[in-house]
Design a protein that fits this description.
Elements (H helix, E strand, L loop, with lengths): L2 E8 L3 H13 L4 E5 L3 H12 L9 E4 L8 E6 L15 H18 L4 E4 L4 H12 L6 E3 L3 H15 L6 E2 L2 E2 L7 E2 L5 E2 L2 E2 H7 L5 H23 L4 H15 L4 E3 L2 E3 L10 E3 L2 E4 L2 E5 L6 H19 L5
Parallel strand pairs: 1-2, 1-4, 2-3, 4-5, 5-6
Antiparallel strand pairs: 7-10, 8-9, 10-11, 12-15, 13-14, 15-16
């Protein structure tokens, strides 16, 4: 039987440990198990996290093995090779698919009911691979997708427009990577069309601003990696947000990576689009309106991912 308040994180590197901490701080879990190929690393992270429990809410945090995945409602997969400076997310694919081949069969041996949340990069391809390797229904295997990219877009737009980023409504879709696209045609600030809002505020060189912000969103991970070696706080916050949607059955709309199954003219490929997320995982992917330029960019993104997926022999 699944315990909705039990979760697991597989992979205790920067992203895994930060995600575990972020999820713990939400207070929605009563039990969290950490797994890592380096058992001592998992034990150390569990001890460190457990010592912060008195500042949060009662919770059992411990290092474990695959049998401890039994009963988990959510299993977060962060294990994988790190993205190196100058390396694209897609260049990671073969190394991390090989890691998934060793992890996923062990997961489903002990738990076929949990939602699998893939965070390792390249997340779209690995989400697709995890679904194929697990044999689980597509809605049960989701990726963190462009949830973080969308947050970056909202933050940068908020900074530029001098408004609270929570009032900015915009989304990044497609690949979590170099071919992602910002849906400018639907962007708004609390219901006010972005173009009109910029005109009201006297913002000049609007198109130039949009292109610069898009590039900053797309390339921000490379810049952070170059400066500090890895990104983890932002994605940890994204993981915690997705976890809340699942545990609380919120039916919130987030741009997670999910199998599109015919949407946008794309079949059997995981990409990020606005998706209703709840207790059952990716409950409904939404085909939002795009202008022709955006549709073409989305098709190019799908082509890029499809070519990589086709080389893995998992269809």
């Amino acid at each position: 039987m699944v315990n909705i308040q039990k979760a697991a994180v597989i992979g205790c590197g920067f992203v895994g440990s930060s995600s575990a901490f972020a999820m713990m701080k939400t207070g929605i879990f009563s039990e969290l198990v950490l797994l890592d190929v380096n058992r001592a690393k998992a034990e150390g992270e569990a001890m460190d996290l457990a010592h912060s429990v008195p500042f949060s809410r009662p919770m059992k945090v411990y290092a474990g093995g695959y049998p401890d995945l039994s009963g988990c409602a959510l299993i977060v997969i962060t294990a994988g090779a790190n993205q190196k400076p100058g390396e694209t997310r897609l260049e990671l694919v073969r190394k991390n698919v090989a890691i998934l081949r060793s992890i996923v069969p062990e997961i489903v041996k002990y738990n076929r009911e949990a939602i699998l949340l893939v965070v390792s990069n390249p997340v779209d391809i690995l989400t697709w691979a995890a679904q194929k390797l697990s044999g689980l229904p597509p809605k049960q295997v989701i990726g963190s997708g462009t949830v973080l990219d969308t947050a970056r877009l909202k933050y940068l737009l908020g900074q530029h427009l001098r408004v609270d980023s929570r009032s900015v409504h915009a989304v990044v879709i497609g690949e979590h990577g170099d071919s992602e696209l910002a849906v400018w045609s639907g962007a708004n600030v609390s219901g006010v069309d972005l173009d009109h809002f910029c005109a009201l505020c006297g913002q000049e060189r609007h198109l130039e601003m949009m292109e610069r912000i898009y590039r900053d969103v797309r390339d921000s991970a490379y810049e952070i990696i170059e400066k500090k070696g890895a990104t983890y706080y932002g994605i940890a916050a994204a993981v915690a947000r997705i976890a809340q949607c699942i545990v609380r059955d919120e039916h919130s709309v987030l741009p997670v990576s999910t199998n599109l199954q015919g949407l946008y003219g794309v079949d059997d490929l995981c990409m990020s689009v606005p998706t209703v997320v709840g207790r059952d995982g990716a409950e409904k992917a939404l085909e939002i309106e795009l202008d022709e330029k955006e549709r073409e960019a989305f098709r190019r993104s799908a082509k890029t991912l499809g070519e990589v997926a086709g080389e893995l022999g998992l269809s």
